[in-house]
Amino acid sequence: MLRAATAVFVIGLSTGAWCQEPCRAIVPEVASDLVDAGLPRNENRWRAIGRLWAESEQGTLDDVGRMLATGSLSPAADVIQGRTHDLLREAIDEHRDDLVHSLLNLWRKPLSTLSSRNRVFIYYQTPEQRLSEATLDGTYEMWVGADGIESLLYSAIYLAGATDIVNAIARRKLESRSEEMNSFAQRLSGTALSHYKRWSLGRPGIWQVRGWGCEASGLDLVEFTQWRMNHTLGGRGETYCASPTDLDMMITVGISNLLRAAAKAPDLVAIADSDQQQLASLVRLQAKFMGSRLVYGAVVNAQGQSVPTVDFDPGAWASHPDLAYAIDESAKFPEKQMHAKAGLGWDFSHGSRIAWTALALADSSTSIDGMIDWSSVADALAHQVAYRVLDASGATPRFRNYLDGSNGWYRVDLSSGTGIPPYGLSRAFLSMPWARLSVRDSRLMAATTSLWRSLSMPSAAQCDLLDQVYIKGSFWQAREPKGSPIAGSLGNLNLFPFLATSPVR
Description:
The chain is α+β, with helices and mostly antiparallel strands. It contains 15 helices and 12 strands.
């Protein structure tokens, strides 16, 4: 499966049992703001972020340094992008330049591990060879692991976040950009452009689904996208051979970011006209491909109005092993193999990339000249989360595990007794930038407001529910709820995406 395991990490708070009386506020800096209003003041939000980053900065740098030692971006890209991408973009927009320069130190690290290659191992260069060395049509910088294989997904994750940062830098007036910002943007944009050109039309073609049992390999990304969109893949492989993946999304987001940055600041991002046309054509194709998998519905909101909802490619991944127990919505750990659930949506964690893609394409509407109103798609996705996924019945909001509203188990391993239970992916609302959709739905905004209160001035009931759903109860080991398997404090909640993107006043 091309979708990466979503990493959730600690933000540097003191170790120990968190949910004990009296409940401990995670961001006390904003508590006084919420006495008279639902959302914190912007300045206090940044005070809280500054404290948390100061506590976690060195640990994050050390973690990433160890991960990059192999030359591969796996899993360092998930850590860098997941922990700090939204934070850095917002800091650039808000002119929090001390924080910007601190975070850029982290984002520059992967650039030092690039290697120049004219040969690389690829999968199914021929139908008979699972893995073989291929000669490229030139020498390229890339991230290659010790096994000689390019880290495709993790490269795309890093570049999607990094180009968003470049786009934020490009939005700044020339005189307000620091040398550190300019040098990062110029270096990164060249690296991203090289990757996107090679991935889209470079030879030999690296795109394939033969590993899933379908008859397609050696394709460039344009061919691969067209084949999947038209369902012309042969073979008797997995049903999701023809499905968009989050690798498609990360590439589409990254190219969209790069084209917007080039339009705003050609001094930072220089792209030849022919390359711009080629990349814009690919984004239009990908947008059409992903738009073809949108399935609309409707709900009645609190005002009695019918509002549109949207799910993305429901049922496509239902046969994937990660989703094998999604039909089981009981609180008890599964004991036997289940069957696939028809119409199952994406999991709530990876689903955040659907929202990211919709927002990126909405911002790119003039450059890609698309037929789909992606801002309306983002609105409908906000309604989908608010009315299908959100459970607002308790002291603290919680979220079902799948975007269609299903709430079964995720990533169950019977042999080790590990898995994510119903509501276990609620933490993704904090560790992914779902809060960016809050302004598009009043019910979702109310949930965001409630989560601010739970983090800043929790009641005993909120404290208990955070522990049961977001921390200890979010992951089972040895058939018991024990929390994240990654060692750390506060259940390894990563709050930066929520704190950075949630609406404030």
